[in-house]
Amino acid sequence: MPRATNAPASRERRKRVLDKAKGYRGRRSKLFRYAKDATMKAQYWAYRDRKTRKRNFRNLWIQRINAACRDNGTTYSRFIEGLAAANIAIDRKALAELAVQDPSAFKSIFDRAAEALQKKHAA
């Protein structure tokens, strides 16, 4: 009885890895052994950096909101405290967008938060 090598499935598996490695430089796109390592590492980086991108954007939004708050005479943490006191539910992404694109709208939200914070501390 001849030896079964499962050739179609093996070839398809190797082809899939080499297709993923298209565009890589040198042997990383041509030879299975190196392409396999390159694609595994690329997938690891892609997964990891999807998480990192979220972290980076959150930091950017906080910096933008903080800059806008300092232009209006307070800090980010006091502003967030004022938003909580005023029961204003708006996320950092939207606040940062307002701070950059529409400073007058941000200023109106800022004023309401500052007012609520003063009332909270006065009571």
What descriptors fit this protein?
mainly alpha, 123 residues, c-terminal domain of poly(a) binding protein, single chain
Could you characterize what this model shows?
The chain is mainly alpha-helical and 123 residues long. It has a single domain, classed as Ribosomal protein L20, C-terminal domain (c-terminal domain of poly(a) binding protein, Orthogonal Bundle). 76% of the residues lie in helices and 0% in strands. The chain has five helices and no strands. The protein has helices spanning 7-20, 32-71, 76-85, 92-101, 103-122. Helix 4 (92-101) packs across helix 5. The longest helix is centred in the middle third of the chain and has 40 residues, at 32-71. The radius of gyration is 27 Å and the shape is rod-shaped. The mean pLDDT is 95.
Largest sheet properties? none
Number of strands: 0
- What percentage of amino acids are in beta strands? under 5%
Write the element-wise H/E pattern from the N-terminal end onward.
Answer: HHHHH
Number of domains: 1
pLDDT average, as an integer?
95
Q: Low-confidence spans: pLDDT under 50, at least 5 residues?
A: none
**Helicity range:** over 70%
Structural category is mainly alpha
Report how far the terminal alpha carbons are from each other: 91 Å
Compute the CA-based radius of gyration.
Answer: 27 Å
CATH architectural grouping: Orthogonal Bundle
Shape: rod-shaped
How many H/I helical runs?
A: 5
